[in-house]
UniProtKB/TrEMBL annotation:
PROSITE patterns: PROKAR_LIPOPROTEIN. It comes from Rapidithrix thailandica. It is found in: Cell outer membrane. Pfam families: SusD-like_3, SusD_RagB. This is RagB/SusD family nutrient uptake outer membrane protein. Residues 93-210 form the SusD-like N-terminal domain. Keywords: Cell outer membrane, Membrane, Signal.
Length: 574
């Protein structure tokens, strides 16, 4: 009920203001509302902020796995980067219209009659979102123009702004976030639950500084940057601990138990007023439109460790690949023979809610009893993570599961990664032990299967752990970029699938077959997902920083293009 009230409040007022929210203070003729009244009424002022949320708050990233080696990604913008075909116009993220709204608030909010604590809350949220908007651009392009006041649109000199150095942008983000941390409440309650609070700002500051210390921005290393990242993330962990945040006991339930202690920053969804379409990723028989997406590759499947903490060894074959994996594997990957959790009862009461995706003895693809030509699985697996198993195919696009942008697990691992880089090995290991313990990995001799102790080896371990912990959470592509590890994809060559082919003498699965018998029913065929020429990974060095799209260069002659793109001269490492 609280969630419904929150969105009714936000959406009704934002809908009113967003007829043209950027004109709220720019135009005098607003009919019933004088623009200056916005800063005399907390309800209107908060609605102005809510419109900023609507522009910048992350949401469900449909089929985000296609942006890396997690899953195939037909039609994705990032596919042009993955396959070496990117141009300066491939990705265009340019948040200046929203930054203008933020700057207007920061300039005007104290001119009205709002209470001091109301002003603090409004400014704190606005400063957070300004840092967020700049980081969203800087992580792509490097330094961009820093605009901190509303520009006079009639003043050409004020509008044609040059790019600031990346270091200047990072410093401004840090200043905005420090100010936001001072102004924001420790938490919000009631209808305001889910707004940006102090813990979110601290966690995001840690993320920003972790990126800045990482090889994307600092290819030659800088211990001072890692030290700042360590301090920011440790402060965030300590604060969140004090607020009762932490790792939720059951990894699989993190997405289903809303408002649990692991959710730090999240986008609230509810049915029927504010839903997502993530459940279109379910198999054909459990969806409506035969969409598919985020189909895990065998490359991702191989990355999940065993229950004893050891790495899975694909050289040992795939006859029992699903046995004795850690809990994150079962919470993330649905595989042939597994119970998908959605009962589908046929006449006679036979439960067909199990996945049977395979090729028959003649090589024809079968999706158990419900196969359609051009079916939506071609890796051998489905995503199992964060999908609502309770709604019907008829309401498949009405998912109410919240998107968690920042989990406590990320803040903890950001802290651990930075600790490793400044030589605090014990702290780095302790973080990994906590993450693995929650994943159900056996303690063994107390190291949860981690034998590494050197900085270099633990760096690789953190890469692997993040790959499985945050699978399909939109982090893999950004992690590979900030680590400057495009070689991981280029060396992989292509994404891979594991097809199950029914043995010639085997009986076709029906209803429920003993999962332990899968190995005797099928042969396992390891193959490329994308087979055509030009489909291999071919990421280029210049992709660590994107080129500025041509349309922005055309309207601002003072913008320099990024080095490596169309003769660009701007150095994103400065």
């Amino acid at each position: 009920m609280m969630k419904m009230k929150f969105y009714t409040l936000c959406l009704s007022v934002v809908a009113f203001l967003s007829v043209s929210c950027e004109d709220v203070l720019d135009k005098e003729n607003l009919g019933a509302i004088n623009p200056q009244d916005v800063w005399n009424d907390y309800f209107l002022a908060q609605a102005y902020v809510d419109n900023i949320y609507s522009k910048l708050m992350p949401e469900w990233s449909y089929s985000s796995g296609g942006a890396s080696d997690e899953a195939p990604g037909d039609g994705f913008t990032l596919n042009d980067f993955l396959k070496g075909n990117a141009t300066i116009d491939t990705e265009d993220i340019w948040h200046y219209s929203t930054i203008r709204k933020i700057n207007i608030l920061l300039q005007e909010v104290e001119k009205g009659s709002l209470k001091p604590d109301e002003i603090d809350k409004l400014k704190g949220q606005a400063l957070f979102w300004r840092a967020w908007a700049y980081f969203d651009m800087v992580k792509r392009y490097g330094g961009v123009p820093l605009i901190l006041q509303p520009q006079d649109r009639e003043d050409e000199d004020a509008i044609l702004v040059s790019r600031n150095k990346t270091s200047e942008c990072i410093l401004q983000m840090e200043e905005d976030l420090n100010h936001a941390i001072d102004l924001l409440p420790d938490s919000w309650n009631g209808v305001d639950y889910g707004r940006i609070d102090k813990g979110v700002a601290m966690a995001f500051k840690g993320r920003v500084l972790l990126y800045y210390a990482s090889p994307q921005f600092t290819p030659n290393g800088d211990q001072a940057r890692w030290q700042k990242a360590y301090e920011a993330n440790k402060a965030a962990v300590d604060f969140l601990d004090g607020q009762g945040k932490g790792l939720f006991a059951d990894f699989a339930e993190v997405w289903y138990e809303e408002q649990n202690k692991e959710a730090v920053m999240f986008h609230r969804y509810f049915h029927p007023g504010h839903t997502s379409n993530q459940n279109l990723l379910r198999p054909i028989w459990a969806t409506r439109d035969n969409v598919g997406g985020d189909r895990p590759t065998i490359d991702l499947v191989n990355a999940f460790p065993m229950k004893d903490g050891s790495d899975f060894d694909p050289n040992g074959g795939y006859q029992d690949f699903w046995k004795n994996r850690d809990q994150r594997f079962y919470a993330t990957v649905a595989y042939t023979g597994s119970d998908y959790g959605i009962p589908k009862l046929q006449p006679g009461g036979v439960n067909e809610g199990y996945l049977w995706n395979y090729k028959d003895a003649n090589g024809n693809f079968i999706e158990y009893e419900l196969y359609e030509e051009g079916g939506n699985n071609y890796t051998g697996f489905y995503r199992n993570k964060a999908l609502d198993k309770t709604i019907t195919p008829q309401t498949i696009d009405q998912c109410g599961i919240d998107w968690i942008e920042i989990r406590y697990a990320e803040v903890l691992m950001n802290y651990g990664e930075a600790a490793n880089e400044i030589g605090k090995t014990d702290e780095a290991l302790t973080v990994l032990y906590k993450i693995r313990e929650r994943a159900g990995i056996e303690a063994g001799s107390g190291n949860y299967g981690i034998a590494e102790s050197s900085k270099e080896a633990l760096r690789e371990r953190y890469m692997k752990e993040r790959q499985v912990e945050f699978a399909f959470e939109g982090k893999r592509w950004w992690d590979l970029r900030r680590w400057r590890r495009f070689d991981v994809l280029n060396n992989l060559g292509r994404r891979h699938a594991l097809f199950f082919q029914l043995k010639s003498n085997a009986v076709k699965p029906s209803g429920w077959d003993d999962l332990n018998a899968v190995g005797s029913l099928f042969d396992f065929i390891y193959t490329d997902v994308e087979q055509a020429a030009g489909e291999a990974f071919n990421l280029q060095e210049e992709y660590y920083f994107y080129g500025i799209p041509k349309k922005h260069l055309d309207v601002n002659s003072n913008l320099e293009q990024t080095q490596g793109w169309d003769g660009g001269t701007f150095d994103p490492l400065q």
